[in-house]
Amino acid sequence: MGVETGLQLRTLIKRSGELELSLVDVPTPEPGPDEVVVRIEAAPINPSDLGLLVGAADLSTMQASGTKDRPVITAKVPEAGMRAMAARVDESMPIGNEGAGVVVKTGSSDAAKALMGRTVAAIGGAMYSQYRCLKVSECLPLPAGTTPAEGASCFVNPLTSLGMTETMRREGHTALVHTAAASNLGQMLNKICLKDGIALVNIVRSAAQAEILRGLGAKYVVDSTSPTFMDDLIAALVETGATIAFDAIGGGKLAGQILNAMEAAINKSGKHPYSRYGSNVHKQVYIYGGLDTRPTEITRGFGMTWSVGGWLLFPFLMKIGKADTERLRQRVVDELKTTFASHYTKVVSLTEALDPANLAAYAKRATGEKFLIDPNKDK
Amino acid sequence: MGVETGLQLRTLIKRSGELELSLVDVPTPEPGPDEVVVRIEAAPINPSDLGLLVGAADLSTMQASGTKDRPVITAKVPEAGMRAMAARVDESMPIGNEGAGVVVKTGSSDAAKALMGRTVAAIGGAMYSQYRCLKVSECLPLPAGTTPAEGASCFVNPLTSLGMTETMRREGHTALVHTAAASNLGQMLNKICLKDGIALVNIVRSAAQAEILRGLGAKYVVDSTSPTFMDDLIAALVETGATIAFDAIGGGKLAGQILNAMEAAINKSGKHPYSRYGSNVHKQVYIYGGLDTRPTEITRGFGMTWSVGGWLLFPFLMKIGKADTERLRQRVVDELKTTFASHYTKVVSLTEALDPANLAAYAKRATGEKFLIDPNKDK
């Protein structure tokens, strides 16, 4: 098979309440003057991709069918989950936020031709495809000596972690809290904060994860599974003065515990008089992920000056504008092999991505476990 | 007893984990040149007063002691509740946000003397007192023919309900949702919205409450105890386009249900393309009360563009500034006997306020039940 057609991973949720993952052959579009065709060789499976890939499906009901070359996975979507899926029902969707590869065909413009043979990264969607036709302006040419695997995660995690420290500053906070902090993203955020001199309170879910972060030089690491968790967290918040948190967990009690610990730390600081409505210091938790899909359970013991809300990279970039986005993007390219280096536990092909054992592994979203898809691995 | 001393209601939470409510004799301060002494004759028990009055105490453990003239109420504060109480422990605090009464003594300035004999309202705190010394600038002189009972609730409910429609406009929404909507405040908000042509979705917790609001001319009333609640709410949100809610309940699932219903209504409108992150329309719930003290349980099925946070009158007034605050205040005075009229189920003296049966009744915060304290009723 040449560049004319390529395999593409598709996700479909049927009105009947069934998720179907499959591979389809799609013709590669002929590039327009300002477009290029990229042979995708590396695309990470980010938590944000998983949200689209499996939606509200219950993977314990997963069934494999199809053939070796064209595997099909099906799973049931519980009725309660279908409401949130309404807008995507019966629409077969390509997937894969970001990735990198080599330009194998170009349009007629000089800018397009200049990219021939270059390794480029992009955040164009549909990256779990063998070939992607992209605008020149969508391509981020990587420095010589950078492999597609090294450049695959140029956007989501690097810009998200930079977005967190930017948001912290813009909203008037001076230190921050991060949950699921041993994740790829969390490790990146640690490197940024160490480099930029920002106090970061890392919340992890095991002693082993705490060790990973301490090994990276993290100063404040608290383990939510420890019996002294709340006391440890309050102590770290007293020391750092953090009043903003970014939470990848979403479900369960953690977001509320953070707000309560912030308020306790503010009261301990003795800087604020008692008010029946709690301190007047604004306490913010942004939920940017959903590692725990259970409801968010907030025990309100922190007064009235608080907010919990969603945080998403693209609206954030829209808000800060083009110049500031470009500044963040340039920093990522400059520090791609240091601050923003990503690590993967396994590289899979498109067919391997639909192997039930692999799917079960990456859908668990376990910390430290990160898959990279190489759509051209089988070729 | 003359004006020299007066009874004052006090609330105290002891380090031992005990709430104590009592009456104490306090000397009335001699008014300074720009101050007056007000004989308080009417002070409402608002939900916000109850938060300070009983704190985290468990009223099922309530004990009455003391004498007929100096009753004392005690109750246990569960250990889990003591953390939030830390800042007020062992401090005997006066109470009563707002009230009205008659000026019985004045300072030497012309402005103070001009108030002699006038009925004034104030939001000065410690209003559950027989006498309050207030600055002239704290007093809102009421129009002739207004009784203290009519002016007692000039501030909290009127400015809070006006603050909701102001917040709605300032944050770019065009219609709003209100919970516990049959409350005194909710009825006020209905009158404001009807007058100002704002679509208001009223969420109530019984068919009887729905009737109260329909009787006031409310167009959108949905009952959260109805089996068709979610469908009814979504239908009302499709019609009104409301994307901001003010929630007095706080605990349980309601805040999350509102966000989910908003997202469903936005999707039904067909105006926004599908995104894996949900619609890009900002959905806001402000929690301004805690009628349900259980944790807030949010089932996140509404994408990433959302926020739940605390809303409080005074920070809001600080934010909008003096001129806009004055504009709202003037509207309240102008419409005190119409839009902003309050209704009370019972008028009690200070000793009656500490009668266990009364305390149990008003602490229930039942919709439609509202107590007014007349500290000089026994005299």
Written description of the protein model:
2 copies of one chain form a homodimer. In chain A, strand 12 (199-204), helix 7 (207-215) and strand 13 form a beta-alpha-beta unit. With 379 residues, chain A is an alpha/beta fold. In chain A, helix 5 (156-170) packs across helix 6 and helix 8 (229-240) crosses helix 9. In chain A, 32% of the residues lie in helices and 29% in strands. The first copy, chain A, folds into 2 domains: 5-153 and 343-373, Quinone Oxidoreductase, Chain A, domain 1 (Alpha-Beta Complex), CATH 3.90.180.10; 156-316, NAD(P)-binding Rossmann-like Domain (Rossmann fold, 3-Layer(aba) Sandwich).
- Uncertain ranges of chain A: none
Radius of gyration of chain A: 22 Å
Task: Give the strand tally of chain A.
Answer: 20
Could you state the oligomeric state of the chains shown? homodimer
Report strand % of chain A. 25-35%
Instruction: Tell me the structural class of chain A.
Output: alpha/beta
Intertermini distance of chain A: 9 Å
Percent range of helical residues of chain A? 25-40%
Q: What is the count of structural domains of chain A?
A: 2
Largest interface: A-B, 47 and 46 residues
* Count of separate DSSP helical elements of chain A: 13
CATH class category label of the largest domain in chain A: Alpha Beta
Instruction: Examine the coordinates and then state which fold CATH places here, giving the name of the CATH topology of the largest domain in chain A.
Output: Quinone Oxidoreductase, Chain A, domain 1
Q: What is the typical, i.e. mean, pLDDT of chain A?
A: 94
